[in-house]
Amino acid sequence: MPVFTKDKYSAVLHENTHIGTTIIQVNATDLDAGSNGEVVYAFGSGVKDKIRQIFNIDSDTGEIIVKGHVDFEEQDNYDIDIQASDKGSIPFRTLKNILIQIVDTNDNPPEIEVASLSGAVSEDSRPGTTVALISITDLDSGLNAEQRRIVTRTARTKWILITLLLTSIWKCASGQFRYSVSEEVQEGTAVGNIAKDLGLDKNALKERGVRIVYGSTEPPFTVNPDDGVLYVNRKIDREEMCDRSKICVVDLKTVLQNPLEIHHVTVEILDVNDHAPSFPEKKRNLEVFESALPGARFQLQAARDADSGLLSVYQYKLSPNNFFRLEVKDRGEDRKTPSLVLEKPLDRESVKTHVLLLTAIDGGKPPRSGNMTIIVNVSDVNDNPPVFSQESYVVSLSENSPVGTTVVQVNATDLDEGSNGQVVYSFGNDVDVRARARFNLDPNTGVIVVAGPIDFEESSRYEIDVQASDKGTATLKTDKTIIINIIDLNDNVPEIEVTSFSQALPEDSKPGTTVALISVKDSDSGLNGKVMCYINQDLPFLLTPSLQNNMYSLVTKSILNREKQSQYNVLIIAKDAGEPCLSSEKVIPIVVSDVNDNSPEFTQNPYTFYITENNTPGERIFSVTAQDQDEGSNALISYFIMRDREGANMLTSFLN
Q1: Which CATH superfamily is domain 387-487 in?
Q2: Which of 293, 376, 462, 653 could be cross-linked to 354 through a Cys-Cys bond (beta carbons 3.0 to 4.6 Å apart)?
Q3: Is the pLDDT confidence value at 130 over 80?
Q4: Sorted alphabetically, which SUPFAM superfamilies does this protein's record hold (predicted)?
Q5: CA-to-CA distance for 69 and 72, rounded, in angstroms?
């Protein structure tokens, strides 16, 4: 809250100071930031309109400026409450009293009041004959009110012009008396016996006559000319006559004739407890932030009592409560200012409003009192973070769920009020781009929906931090981890990968010879990812499982014969155990390579042929043909004649 830089502010101001003159500048500071720390100034709500017509305060600078006519004779000091308020949504206020003393200037001429005893004066009047009573007053104070007397005579007329600038008391006055009477007494109440105090009997009193001179208004007192008793002439209201002055006196002049004597009579008006204390407001709403620390003070407007002294406000009492105590500052001159002092921290979430009764009691017997109801509204500060309604959020989501599918709704509440209690949701700072591409979060409802393709094989689980934040000026946040488990669907077919060992398989390979290594995999999980691999053809091959999961060896089952079948297209089928199951196929081409396992065979055996005699040497006489079922070099045939070693056959010498 704003704090004034000085404990006391006072200023001295000359009456008749020009309008626009700066009298004093107050200053208050506020430790908060932004608009919460900007301070504006204003008169307190209890400042009367009369003061507001004379003075003005600049709301931004705190300067108090003369606005109207300042007259010492009207009022010699001003007690003004200044309020400093911040610009927060629920403003804090602090009051400070400013005392302005008015300095008198000699701006009032003396006033002469003449009370004539006769319309005309006889020319044979003896010296000392009373012509008139003259009263001189000067509204100024001090030396400005001192007076002298000058009597002048004009030559043109037979009138005497009397100009008096008297020096305080008539020199012919022979005494002064003081009486006292309570205000509000009935008309005719005796105040004192002037004749007795002057030592005059009734006969002397009748001969000389006695009367009261008071001024132009009806005197509050009158004297009985027969017995010299001073009586109350009309209703006396001390507060009307003297406001709240400590001492209230009425000055009278008692005039006796023959010879002329003037006696000053002072009647003190005693205060009676005819007014009860009253507050400017019957009800005061006080806004206090729950963050206020014990010891924080909240100045209240003082009660006013038209009575004075002990009959004015004597004490304050505060209704019993657990959070506030009352502190009263005595400024003297019947001015006691109450303040509430916070004793214990407030908690708006526990108690939003405290209703207190402040009682002002005067010192009369019996005492009179007045009450003001104080409603302390505990203003919210953002001291509660949002709280999620669940300790944990764990949900399941099927993969391939359509975009827009609701995954989960998170909910958080905040015990604060207003914007401090309004909650919005967002992903935490650590949520990766992949998760943000898959899910959307509604900031107002907390609903998380599918925003992109959900693939179990890409990620089977998402841990997403969701942040709940309030809308307070100093935002409070709470994080909660949402676990989304993805349910696998059988949406992936088995994959077959073949690693061959050779380009071709020799036909003389023994049974059990490994032809190729086959691996199968299925990106699904559980039964959806369990794969069986087999050959559904009657071929000289079989699949044998490996010790390693999902690995198979393609081996020969029986002897191969290239000459019967030189190539095989082995169809490998892989099928998962999902429901419904998915399968895939892979054809492995196997080429059987030749080995020299076949002898050449003549197309005819034996060959019988005839030759004529007398052939010419080198002449072609016959040809033979042989075939070999092998291929390549294994099928190349060379011919030669086997000769009998014992008996050389000389008939045949050459074979091509």
Answers
A1: Cadherins (2.60.40.60)
A2: 376
A3: no
A4: Cadherin-like
A5: 10
